[in-house]
Amino acid sequence: QVQLVESGGGLVQAGSSLRLSCAASGQTVSTYTMGWFRQAPGKEREFVAAINWRGIYTKFADSVKGRFTISRDNAVNTVYLQMNSLKPEDTAVYYCAAVSTMVVPTTTSAYDYWGQGTQVTVSS
Predict the structure, then answer these.
(1) 123 FRET partner, CA 20 to 30 A, in 39, 54, 100, 107?
(2) Does residue 121 register a pLDDT over 90?
(3) Measuring CA to CA, which residue among 50, 57, 55, 18 is closest to residue 36?
């Protein structure tokens, strides 16, 4: 089993930056694809970004391309989401997810493990 714990959320003004962290425990996720999703009130959970196990291949939602980056440090079993130029529409609960695969899926159904989420609120 894999346990995921997100941190780094908060309340910021538009244009600010935040870095989210997702710490994995239970077993190493060094061979897992890791993803970030978000869910705003009244909306479905949506894909944000994902990174393959070696940290070489990444995918991003069109809405965050050029503003967000994803990275990982397998030595400490942690994945990061650097969010720059934040907008009010980025407000959501952000979830970390993991799946043992060589590909980089973008659908919620593809991921096996999920964290509890961290709230990000961007004020205008």
Answers:
(1) 107
(2) yes
(3) 50
User: CA-CA distance, 10 to 8, in Å (whole number)?
Assistant: 7
Range 57-75 average pLDDT: 97
What would the 3-class secondary structure string for the chain be?
A: CCEEEEECCEEEECCCCEEEEEEEECCCCCCCEEEEEEECCCCCCEEEEEECCCCCCEEECCCCCCCEEEEEEHHHCEEEEEECCCCHHHCEEEEEEEECCCCCCCCHHHCCEECCCEEEEEEC
Q: Give the chain's mean pLDDT.
A: 96
Q: Which residue matches tokens 């980089």?
A: 104
From residue 106, alpha-carbon distances to 8, 14, 17, 63 in Å are 22, 26, 24, 14
pLDDT value of position 30: 85
